Inverse folding.
């Protein structure tokens, strides 16, 4: 049976056939959808006669959105990329679809290694139907992978989702992920992400696949194209992270690049109570065949937040350059970010209580007027790829960051249910330099009926930090109150180090070499990934007070990986993996008889299995996992690595278009945790601190019928209760938060203008969001956001 679309008058067919490959562009607006539906829309809009056998597109992956000026040839190439199909244009202008031939002696590897389909981004996987998530993402050493072809759980969020949610920080983006929850860092305002029950600190977030480059603590999104979330341990894939967190998952940010069409947009935004800002985004490709590209993002924002008396000032300048040659691809990213927080609401510690105190009102602030924090980061990265031939590609990336942090933090220690507390103070200036590099070779070949995707890689990260501090002892804290805050004099503090010129207090060095092979069997229906990474970790510590070396450690460890994907049908895949996590080993505390002894790196182990579905416009995954992480414990006065935290979970993810114009992003997790080998067995069998029994999200985005350009969205987040302590005596209740939003896109004097409005925490619910880290983090209050973006 043949499907025929005759939409071109016969007298116009021949001129079109002669000009189809020319640079003349047609204005197209084809949404992301199934391939056959996309081809139908394309034929109508391009006014071409298109013939194809319906069986060719049956079961094909969804086609990406096609919006902008394209020639017929360019449009077809984009829609058909990764489908295994090509096209032929006859003399009368008729376009016919054909199976793509396989060259003699070569093998087509389906779409396991994904070629980008975003306009101007051949390095990125295409967007999934609905445009909120991508079809795949970067899987460390393995490079970009399609979600159906990888034996791991991944999620990749697009710049479209970031814009429509008006997400200004990484944390605001990841509220859309049902497997991720958040808290603050210890003694500062850094965003900490809890994935599968284990924390991931901002130090350990990668930038274009490279650790140690992004700003610390709070990461802005104005220059981010994709947010890629890897769920599970990843020591083999990425190497050990700089600070050793991320046992339950990792995050990689992809920078913006100049696209095929020029980018010229300016946004003005407002957030309650009085925070206003602007964002300028400019991008352009130029030179022969548009090989050179430049992208610039500038942003500034200042004002009082929805938390009473909390003031925030933020600045960003980010630049991206790239070159796309026939065989050589180069890129450079440079950025500067500065943020100042005055009277930022702090975390809350409990002292001697038998019950967690009631949460204050959502917008209450119990920080002291003298508290502030200033974060300043300069960063840069250079990367390149070279196609040695059609099968092999070599790559290299180097980058670094210089960080200067300063701040006076107030801490509240609550000792009674009526809010009675004591106020402490921490002044902790810190400078840090970080340098990273990675290099490798990727290739594919065949041995008989078995295909191979081989990866060889080297990576390294070197950090040096200088710090000092003034901290308040318990005896020197001053009176305070959680529910009735009042200004406190600055408490007297004990000085450690030179706070005006901090000395070097530590260095870390992580180096590794890795090799992997993904073997394809039965025409790529079965994919087996095997790999091993040899990692060396070295740490040195110096006293802030004396400048003398206090600790030194250097050890190596090997981490393997095993992964299997069975593609039962074109839309159904089964997967399983066994992979490990790695963190620098602990040092025995001063209270132990073996004080100062350094231990080998922590090796956590993960086993996971699940199923993935891809119906073209709608997809999902369901997986089960178990992660076991060793922990240090002092028994009978001797410190050792004898304890363990075990997390077991069931994870569901759903995404895509339920029907044209209705987009879904949802999922949930059930988690069971258990502590083993605790001190004298006192907490054996208890749940781990900061890990809820369940968490789930329901996000919808809907184009309002009859009103072109108008869409509304909503996000429901529900999180179970969490224990505050390992003894499981103190806990916080489950909480629910609802966010609502709307946007309206229209033309203003032939310019695209988009208005967006979002209301976060609609009910202004006061809730303890997290106990991760052994302290309480309060959830954000009701916040109204409004923005206008003009493309000029």
């Amino acid at each position: 049976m043949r499907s025929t679309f005759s939409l071109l008058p016969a007298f116009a067919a021949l001129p079109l056939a002669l000009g189809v490959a020319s640079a003349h562009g047609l204005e197209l607006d084809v949404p992301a959808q199934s391939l056959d539906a996309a081809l139908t829309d394309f034929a109508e809009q391009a006014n071409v006669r298109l013939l194809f056998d319906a069986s060719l597109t049956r079961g094909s992956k969804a086609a990406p959105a096609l919006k902008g000026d394209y020639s017929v040839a360019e449009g077809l190439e984009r829609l058909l990329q990764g489908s295994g199909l090509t096209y032929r244009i006859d003399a009368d202008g008729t376009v016919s679809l054909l199976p793509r031939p396989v060259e003699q002696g070569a093998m087509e590897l389906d779409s396991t290694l994904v070629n980008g389909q975003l306009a101007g981004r051949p390095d990125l996987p295409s967007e999934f139907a609905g445009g909120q998530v991508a079809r795949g993402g970067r899987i460390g050493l393995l490079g970009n992978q399609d979600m159906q072809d990888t034996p791991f759980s991944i999620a990749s969020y697009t710049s479209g989702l970031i814009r429509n949610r008006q997400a200004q920080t990484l944390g605001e983006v990841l509220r859309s992920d049902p497997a991720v929850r958040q808290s603050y860092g210890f003694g500062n305002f850094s965003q900490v992400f809890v994935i599968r029950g284990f924390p991931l600190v901002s130090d350990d977030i990668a930038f274009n696949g490279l650790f140690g480059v992004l700003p610390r603590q709070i990461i802005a999104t104005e220059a981010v194209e994709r947010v890629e979330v890897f769920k599970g341990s990843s020591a083999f894939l990425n190497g050990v992270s700089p600070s050793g967190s991320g046992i339950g998952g990792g995050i990689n940010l992809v920078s913006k690049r100049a696209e095929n069409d020029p980018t010229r947009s300016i946004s003005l935004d407002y957030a309650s109570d009085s925070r206003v800002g602007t964002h300028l985004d400019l991008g352009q490709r130029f030179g022969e065949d548009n090989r050179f590209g430049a992208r610039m993002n500038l942003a500034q924002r200042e004002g009082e937040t929805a938390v009473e008396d909390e003031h925030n000032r933020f600045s960003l300048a980010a630049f991206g350059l790239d070159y796309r040659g026939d065989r050589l691809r180069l890129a450079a990213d440079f950025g500067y970010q500065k943020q100042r927080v005055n009277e930022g609401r702090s975390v809350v510690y409990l002292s001697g209580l038998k019950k967690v105190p009631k949460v204050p009102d959502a917008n209450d602030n119990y920080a002291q007027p003298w508290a502030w924090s200033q974060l300043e980061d300069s960063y840069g990265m250079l990367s390149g790829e070279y196609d040695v031939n059609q099968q092999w590609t070599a790559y290299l990336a180097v980058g670094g960051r210089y960080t200067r942090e300063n701040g006076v933090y107030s801490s509240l220690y609550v000792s009674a249910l009526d809010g009675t507390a004591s106020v402490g103070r921490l002044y902790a200036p810190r400078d840090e330099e970080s340098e990273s590099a990675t290099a490798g070779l990727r290739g594919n070949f065949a041995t008989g009926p078995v295909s191979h995707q081989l990866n060889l890689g080297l990576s390294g990260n070197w950090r040096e930090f200088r710090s000092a501090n003034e901290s308040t002892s318990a005896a020197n804290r001053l009176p305070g109150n959680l529910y009735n805050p009042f200004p406190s004099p600055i408490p007297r503090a004990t000085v450690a180090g030179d706070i005006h010129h901090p000395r070097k207090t530590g260095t870390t060095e992580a180096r590794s070499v890795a090799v992997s092979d993904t073997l394809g069997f039965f025409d790529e229906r079965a994919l087996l990934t095997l790999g091993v990474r040899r990692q060396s970790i070295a740490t040195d510590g110096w006293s802030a007070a004396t400048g003398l070396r206090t600790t030194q450690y250097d050890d190596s460890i090997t981490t393997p990986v095993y992964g299997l994907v069975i593609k039962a049908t074109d839309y159904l895949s089964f997967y399983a993996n066994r992979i490990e996590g790695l963190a620098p080993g602990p040092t025995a505390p001063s209270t132990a008889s073996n004080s100062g002894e350094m231990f080998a790196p922590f090796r956590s182990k993960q086993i996971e299995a699940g199923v993935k579905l891809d119906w073209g416009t709608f997809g999902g995954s369901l997986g089960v996992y178990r992660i076991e992480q060793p922990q240090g414990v002092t028994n009978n006065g001797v410190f050792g690595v004898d304890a363990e935290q075990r997390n077991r979970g069931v994870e569901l993810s759903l995404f895509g278009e339920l029907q044209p114009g209705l987009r879904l992003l949802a999922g949930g997790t059930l988690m069971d945790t258990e502590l083993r080998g605790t001190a004298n067995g006192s907490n054996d069998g208890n749940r781990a601190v900061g890990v809820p029994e369940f968490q789930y999200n329901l996000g919808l985005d809907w184009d309002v019928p009859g009103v072109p350009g108008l869409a509304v969205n909503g996000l429901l987040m529900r999180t179970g209760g969490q224990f505050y302590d390992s003894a499981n005596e103190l806990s916080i209740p489950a909480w629910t938060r609802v966010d609502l939003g709307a946007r309206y896109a229209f033309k203003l004097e032939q310019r695209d203008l988009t208005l967006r409005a979002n209301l976060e925490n609609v009910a202004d619910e006061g809730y303890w969001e997290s106990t991760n880290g052994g302290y309480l983090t309060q959830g954000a209050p009701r916040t109204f956001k409004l923005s206008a973006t003009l493309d000029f």
